[in-house]
Amino acid sequence: MTRGNGSYSKVHFQGKEEDFVIMVDDVKAVQDWKEDRSIPLAQVVNGFKIFVTHKHGAQGVYDEASKQTLENEFGSHNEDECMIKILEGGTLQETEVTIHLTAARNKGYRLTGCVQTGQRQGPKNDSMGARQGH
Predict the structure, then answer these.
(1) From CA 46, how far away is CA 35, in angstroms rounded?
(2) pLDDT tens per residue across span 91-104
(3) What are the φ/ψ torsions at residue 49 (nearest 5 degrees)?
(4) Within a 10 A sphere around the Cβ of 59, how many other Cβ atoms?
(5) Alpha carbon distance, N-terminus to C-terminus of the chain
(6) How big is the CA angle at 33 (ends 29 and 38), to the nearest 5 degrees?
(7) Would you give the distance in Å from CA 74 to the centre of its chain?
């Protein structure tokens, strides 16, 4: 089975109506940014997307937050302003990831953002069925 190993860091912010998650480069980058706000967000945040988990905490399915959801929670739909509020008030989490990609695919999980291992991902030695030469 193909495996994907790695770690990722995120900041979870529990809002009044939704839980918000943003991915960050690493724990140290966030801590450095909190001490020195002259560090650009681009060096802290891993992709400028804010996710909601529909009140499932830091777990569950991540859906991209709508502008209306951001407006309701933070009073602004400007993603930079919302990310700053999430970084200031959220909890930092670092997670080690080991996943059996083939088993996860067989269970129907969507595997977006998986760590690339350099190996071919997907089935190997598949029979060509009726197309196989005799």
Answers:
(1) 19
(2) 998 877 665 555 55
(3) -130, 140
(4) 10
(5) 29
(6) 130
(7) 21
